[in-house]
Design the sequence.
């Protein structure tokens, strides 16, 4: 509103703005909210939601599939936590800090992890070939 007054132009409400945007710039869209669920969880949840009018056997199968997946994820998470705890201990024991060091200069095992924002879809393809 303030900017519109300063520029001596008419301000529009949110619904009018959206209608104008769709009309004038149909090729530009805003991102929809993303979920932090993995692909399998999303698929399982969709099946659970759609199973309302299905026979009990199919509902039970969908629930069982999701429970099995969640148990597997919990085991994976526990292993990951054990690995990172062991690496933290190694860093503390050897008083290591992040930074360059010569390759294979210490007889230790480290765990490297890259955490991308879960809201960002990162496609991956094998387009590049690396020669060693």
Sequence:
């Amino acid at each position: 509103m303030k900017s519109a007054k300063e520029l001596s132009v008419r301000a529009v409400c949110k619904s009018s703005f959206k209608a104008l945007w769709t009309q004038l710039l149909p090729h530009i869209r805003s991102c929809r909210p993303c979920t932090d669920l993995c692909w399998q969880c999303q698929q399982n949840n969709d099946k659970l939601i759609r199973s309302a009018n299905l026979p009990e056997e199919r509902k039970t199968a969908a629930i069982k599939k999701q429970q099995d997946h969640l148990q597997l994820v919990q085991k994976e998470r526990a292993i990951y936590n054990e690995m990172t705890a062991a690496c933290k201990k190694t860093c503390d024991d050897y008083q290591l800090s992040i930074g360059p060091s010569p390759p294979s200069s210490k007889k230790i095992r480290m765990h490297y992890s890259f955490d991308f924002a879960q809201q960002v879809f990162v496609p991956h393809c094998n387009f590049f070939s690396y020669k060693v």
